[in-house]
Amino acid sequence: MKDIIAQEIKKVYDELSPAIESFTSRVCPECSEPCCRQRFGIYEREDILFLKTLGYEINDADDRLGPEERCQFLSNRGCTRPRWQRPYRCTWFFCAGLLEAMEADSPAGYRRVVDLLNKIKQLRMELLGLK
Q: pTM for the complete prediction?
């Protein structure tokens, strides 16, 4: 049963990613101080359960880097990890500028992102046996 839930979570991430990237591709390159910090790139126990259920080999963050340093997975083209392989907190973090752009530019697109994030949250709780 867990593998079915994990596959569904991945499916929602795959749907969510282009919706978020439609905003981040316009807002983030203009930012002089990217929000992506090393502390966000570290997997938590729940992330590891999700990824291992899918059979994914964990490639965790380099713990030699300080938590406030730029995330090692951030390239000049965005994150090098597919969204479904990122720690959960990476997917949920939106800076104020990005949120403002999302709400102002496309209220429907913003609502879609929120709905998909809530679906991931619900499925994740099921995977963890919390619902």
A: 0.87
